[in-house]
């Protein structure tokens, strides 16, 4: 399943800046950054649940915001991208 992870971590304090780096590292280990605080992740249900647990362990829910969107793999679902960033096509052929 395709999952969008979006977060807004308060960086007003030193601990907030550390949380931001840790949240980004968790996301980078699972998916690809498509905007500064938005990641696309192609995961199984078990991987999704693990990702959510790992992220919840890093954020401070009193100060930060975390949103996870599960994108259904239905016919007709699409992503339209514009601009300089070109995302990796997870379903496309692997070229080495």
TrEMBL record:
Cofactor(s) required for function per UniProt: Mg(2+)
Pfam family for this entry, one: CRISPR_Cas2
Entries under InterPro entries matching the protein: CRISPR_associated_Cas2, Virulence_VapD/CRISPR_Cas2
EC numbers on record: 3.1.-.-
Record note on quaternary structure: Homodimer, forms a heterotetramer with a Cas1 homodimer.
Protein family membership: Belongs to the CRISPR-associated endoribonuclease Cas2 protein family.
Protein purpose: CRISPR (clustered regularly interspaced short palindromic repeat), is an adaptive immune system that provides protection against mobile genetic elements (viruses, transposable elements and conjugative plasmids). CRISPR clusters contain sequences complementary to antecedent mobile elements and target invading nucleic acids. CRISPR clusters are transcribed and processed into CRISPR RNA (crRNA). Functions as a ssRNA-specific endoribonuclease. Involved in the integration of spacer DNA into the CRISPR cassette.
Name of the protein in its database record: CRISPR-associated endoribonuclease Cas2
Organism: Aquabacterium commune
Gene that produces this protein: cas2
């Amino acid at each position: 399943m395709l999952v969008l992870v979006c977060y807004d971590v308060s960086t007003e304090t030193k601990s907030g800046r550390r949380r931001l780096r840790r949240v980004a590292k968790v996301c980078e280990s699972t998916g690809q950054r498509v905007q500064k605080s938005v990641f696309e992740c192609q995961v199984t249900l078990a991987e999704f649940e693990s990702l959510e647990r790992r992220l919840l362990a890093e954020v401070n829910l009193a100060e930060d915001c975390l949103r996870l969107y599960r994108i259904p793999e239905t016919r007709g679902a699409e992503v339209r991208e514009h601009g300089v960033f070109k995302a990796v096509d997870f379903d496309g052929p692997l070229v080495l």
